[in-house]
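S1.2 Input.
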Amino acid sequence: MKALRHFKKISDYHKLANIASPEHPLISLIDYSKVQYPSDIEDLKWRQDYYTIGLKRNVAHKFFYGQQAYDFDEGVMTFVAPNQVISLTSNPNIRHTPSGWLLLIHPDFLWNTSLAKRIKTYEFFGYAINEALFLSEKEELMMVAHLKNIQKEYHANIDKFSQKIIITQLELLLNYAERFYERQFITRRISNDVLVNQLEEVLSDYFSGNNFIEKGLPSVIWVANRLNLSPNYLSNMLKSLTGQSTQQHIHNKLIDKAKEQLSTTPLSISEIAYGLGFEYPASFTKLFKHKTEMSPSEFRKRFG
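S1.3 Output.
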């Protein structure tokens, strides 16, 4: 089992990567071509207390964080929040020199700024552990420009405007990342359509089990875990593709199951409600009417 280390400071990562100490204790932009991990790096995993924004290419390791593995043989951008665990293994497919940038930001740098709370609202710091951001060449150049502007500012003489200017550049970078993720929902529609089909299979398997009394309705978190996605990313992707959230898809499948039982079995409405995991039949009736604009009994009469 890999040993888990705790990187509390940005300088801890600098030591691991065998690069010079950071010029600023709370923020650092690293040229990834200069990173030199120790030979036993594959026996290590670490938890960090800072944010990491990575834009890397041709990296000789596969990175693992969350439940996903990433290689960087093409330019992709990743966002890691504090307390996420990272490990890596070698990537034998890489034949070129690694390149890119790694921006490390300690939460203390954000105190008393607009980003102190807002950075937590950028959902890709949660779902980026499952979905990297694929950039076009033009987008990549734009992101690198923002990263270098941040570096220039903390390299200069620090004054009372320095933090505000760096925060402004960081907000621009994050806002563009948000825009590019939204674009990715559209341009990667084919792979996302596959996920929609997988969602349908997961829900169909669950609802065909007929043991809702014991298991209850599937939660959004349960569904997302089965698809190896975070709940936020899954719901955002589904809304982009179908106009409905994960919860709405779950309810749609539930209503389909209810319609099947109302039209083909002699079970009472209460029995159907309990069998579908509802504690109170009235709750089932309310949801059914909301979805179909008729009560369960009205629906059943159509097949009488």
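S1.4 Remarks. The CA atoms of residues 17 and 37 lie 5 Å apart.
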